[in-house]
Amino acid sequence: EKLGIPLREVAILEGVEPPPGGEPSEQRKIAVDAVFDSVSVATTFQKELKKAGVIFMPISEAIREHPELVRKYLGSVVPTSDNFFATLNSAVFSDGSFVYVPPGVRCPMELSTYFRINERNTGQFERTLIIADKGSYVSYLEGCTAPQRDENQLHAAVVELVALDDAEIKYSTVQNWYPGNSEG
Question: What is this structure's pTM?
Fold first, then answer.
Protein backbone atom coordinates (compact mmCIF):
# COMPACT_ATOMS: atom_id res chain seq x y z
CA GLU A 1 0.00 0.00 0.00
CA LYS A 2 2.95 2.34 0.59
CA LEU A 3 3.55 2.32 -3.18
CA GLY A 4 -0.11 3.04 -3.87
CA ILE A 5 -0.98 -0.49 -5.03
CA PRO A 6 -3.71 -2.21 -2.98
CA LEU A 7 -2.41 -5.40 -1.31
CA ARG A 8 -5.25 -7.49 -2.80
CA GLU A 9 -4.26 -6.37 -6.30
CA VAL A 10 -0.62 -7.22 -5.59
CA ALA A 11 -1.63 -10.72 -4.42
CA ILE A 12 -3.69 -11.30 -7.58
CA LEU A 13 -0.87 -10.09 -9.84
CA GLU A 14 1.64 -12.31 -8.05
CA GLY A 15 -0.64 -15.32 -8.49
CA VAL A 16 -0.91 -15.79 -4.72
CA GLU A 17 -4.63 -15.10 -4.63
CA PRO A 18 -7.26 -15.95 -7.27
CA PRO A 19 -9.06 -13.16 -9.10
CA PRO A 20 -12.52 -12.19 -7.76
CA GLY A 21 -14.88 -15.14 -8.27
CA GLY A 22 -12.03 -17.38 -9.46
CA GLU A 23 -10.80 -20.66 -8.09
CA PRO A 24 -7.17 -21.09 -7.04
CA SER A 25 -6.62 -23.45 -10.01
CA GLU A 26 -7.79 -20.66 -12.34
CA GLN A 27 -5.11 -18.25 -11.20
CA ARG A 28 -3.56 -16.35 -14.05
CA LYS A 29 0.05 -15.56 -13.33
CA ILE A 30 1.43 -12.24 -14.46
CA ALA A 31 5.12 -11.49 -14.07
CA VAL A 32 5.58 -7.87 -13.02
CA ASP A 33 8.59 -5.55 -13.11
CA ALA A 34 7.97 -2.46 -10.95
CA VAL A 35 10.04 0.62 -11.83
CA PHE A 36 9.76 3.65 -9.54
CA ASP A 37 11.53 6.90 -10.35
CA SER A 38 13.53 5.13 -13.07
CA VAL A 39 14.83 2.35 -10.81
CA SER A 40 13.53 -1.23 -10.92
CA VAL A 41 12.50 -2.23 -7.40
CA ALA A 42 11.11 -5.74 -7.99
CA THR A 43 10.59 -8.32 -10.74
CA THR A 44 8.39 -11.36 -10.07
CA PHE A 45 8.47 -14.94 -11.44
CA GLN A 46 12.00 -14.68 -12.88
CA LYS A 47 12.90 -18.26 -11.85
CA GLU A 48 9.75 -19.73 -13.38
CA LEU A 49 10.28 -17.81 -16.63
CA LYS A 50 13.93 -18.88 -16.73
CA LYS A 51 12.81 -22.54 -16.74
CA ALA A 52 11.06 -21.79 -20.06
CA GLY A 53 14.15 -19.93 -21.30
CA VAL A 54 12.43 -16.54 -21.07
CA ILE A 55 14.48 -13.61 -19.79
CA PHE A 56 12.46 -10.88 -18.05
CA MET A 57 14.48 -8.40 -16.02
CA PRO A 58 15.35 -4.75 -15.61
CA ILE A 59 17.34 -3.52 -18.59
CA SER A 60 20.12 -2.44 -16.20
CA GLU A 61 20.57 -6.13 -15.25
CA ALA A 62 20.31 -7.27 -18.87
CA ILE A 63 23.17 -4.95 -19.83
CA ARG A 64 25.37 -6.81 -17.30
CA GLU A 65 24.03 -10.36 -17.71
CA HIS A 66 23.17 -10.48 -21.45
CA PRO A 67 25.34 -7.81 -23.10
CA GLU A 68 25.38 -9.60 -26.46
CA LEU A 69 21.57 -9.42 -26.81
CA VAL A 70 21.41 -5.81 -25.63
CA ARG A 71 24.21 -4.71 -27.99
CA LYS A 72 22.61 -6.50 -30.94
CA TYR A 73 19.09 -5.09 -30.55
CA LEU A 74 19.19 -1.86 -28.50
CA GLY A 75 18.75 1.02 -30.94
CA SER A 76 17.90 -1.31 -33.84
CA VAL A 77 14.27 -0.10 -34.00
CA VAL A 78 14.61 3.46 -32.67
CA PRO A 79 18.12 4.79 -33.35
CA THR A 80 19.55 7.45 -31.06
CA SER A 81 19.36 9.95 -33.93
CA ASP A 82 15.67 9.22 -34.68
CA ASN A 83 14.37 12.33 -32.88
CA PHE A 84 15.13 14.70 -30.00
CA PHE A 85 13.40 12.53 -27.39
CA ALA A 86 15.15 9.34 -28.55
CA THR A 87 18.47 11.17 -28.21
CA LEU A 88 17.50 12.47 -24.75
CA ASN A 89 16.37 9.01 -23.63
CA SER A 90 19.55 7.36 -24.92
CA ALA A 91 21.66 9.88 -23.02
CA VAL A 92 19.96 9.62 -19.63
CA PHE A 93 17.94 6.39 -19.27
CA SER A 94 18.89 4.39 -16.19
CA ASP A 95 16.45 1.49 -16.26
CA GLY A 96 13.46 -0.08 -17.91
CA SER A 97 12.45 -3.59 -18.96
CA PHE A 98 14.13 -6.27 -21.01
CA VAL A 99 12.44 -9.36 -22.44
CA TYR A 100 13.90 -12.15 -24.55
CA VAL A 101 11.80 -15.13 -25.65
CA PRO A 102 13.84 -17.93 -27.29
CA PRO A 103 12.95 -19.58 -30.62
CA GLY A 104 9.70 -21.55 -30.62
CA VAL A 105 8.77 -20.68 -27.01
CA ARG A 106 5.36 -19.40 -25.99
CA CYS A 107 5.90 -17.30 -22.86
CA PRO A 108 4.12 -19.23 -20.05
CA MET A 109 2.56 -16.10 -18.52
CA GLU A 110 1.79 -12.51 -19.34
CA LEU A 111 4.50 -9.95 -18.62
CA SER A 112 3.86 -6.48 -17.28
CA THR A 113 5.95 -3.49 -16.27
CA TYR A 114 4.65 -0.70 -14.09
CA PHE A 115 6.54 2.60 -14.42
CA ARG A 116 5.76 5.28 -11.85
CA ILE A 117 7.13 8.75 -11.18
CA ASN A 118 6.82 9.58 -7.47
CA GLU A 119 9.20 12.51 -7.15
CA ARG A 120 8.21 16.07 -8.00
CA ASN A 121 9.94 18.04 -10.73
CA THR A 122 11.45 15.03 -12.44
CA GLY A 123 11.06 13.04 -15.61
CA GLN A 124 10.88 9.42 -16.61
CA PHE A 125 13.26 8.08 -19.23
CA GLU A 126 12.74 4.34 -19.21
CA ARG A 127 13.70 1.99 -22.00
CA THR A 128 11.81 -1.15 -23.01
CA LEU A 129 13.40 -3.77 -25.26
CA ILE A 130 11.38 -6.87 -26.14
CA ILE A 131 12.89 -9.53 -28.41
CA ALA A 132 10.73 -12.42 -29.61
CA ASP A 133 12.98 -14.89 -31.40
CA LYS A 134 11.80 -17.03 -34.34
CA GLY A 135 8.38 -18.62 -33.85
CA SER A 136 7.93 -17.36 -30.28
CA TYR A 137 5.07 -15.52 -28.57
CA VAL A 138 4.86 -13.04 -25.70
CA SER A 139 2.10 -10.82 -24.29
CA TYR A 140 3.31 -7.65 -22.56
CA LEU A 141 1.44 -4.81 -20.85
CA GLU A 142 3.16 -1.60 -19.84
CA GLY A 143 1.65 0.96 -17.48
CA CYS A 144 2.99 4.46 -16.83
CA THR A 145 1.68 6.87 -14.23
CA ALA A 146 2.44 9.59 -11.69
CA PRO A 147 0.51 11.23 -8.86
CA GLN A 148 -1.76 13.98 -10.14
CA ARG A 149 -0.15 17.28 -9.40
CA ASP A 150 -0.76 20.76 -10.70
CA GLU A 151 2.55 20.87 -12.52
CA ASN A 152 4.16 19.46 -15.61
CA GLN A 153 5.74 16.03 -15.86
CA LEU A 154 8.05 14.69 -18.54
CA HIS A 155 7.85 11.14 -19.84
CA ALA A 156 10.37 10.41 -22.62
CA ALA A 157 10.36 6.65 -23.08
CA VAL A 158 11.64 4.51 -25.90
CA VAL A 159 10.03 1.14 -26.66
CA GLU A 160 11.66 -1.27 -29.11
CA LEU A 161 9.82 -4.42 -30.19
CA VAL A 162 11.81 -6.94 -32.21
CA ALA A 163 9.74 -9.83 -33.61
CA LEU A 164 11.88 -12.21 -35.65
CA ASP A 165 10.48 -14.64 -38.28
CA ASP A 166 7.01 -15.96 -37.36
CA ALA A 167 7.21 -14.44 -33.85
CA GLU A 168 4.38 -12.51 -32.25
CA ILE A 169 4.48 -9.76 -29.64
CA LYS A 170 1.19 -8.61 -28.14
CA TYR A 171 2.10 -5.19 -26.72
CA SER A 172 -0.21 -2.80 -24.91
CA THR A 173 0.42 0.37 -22.95
CA VAL A 174 -1.76 2.25 -20.51
CA GLN A 175 -0.73 5.75 -19.47
CA ASN A 176 -2.23 7.98 -16.81
CA TRP A 177 -0.76 11.49 -16.71
CA TYR A 178 -1.78 14.89 -15.44
CA PRO A 179 -3.83 16.35 -18.33
CA GLY A 180 -2.58 19.88 -17.77
CA ASN A 181 -4.53 23.08 -17.38
CA SER A 182 -4.77 26.46 -19.11
CA GLU A 183 -1.21 27.26 -17.98
CA GLY A 184 0.34 24.00 -19.21
Answer: 0.81
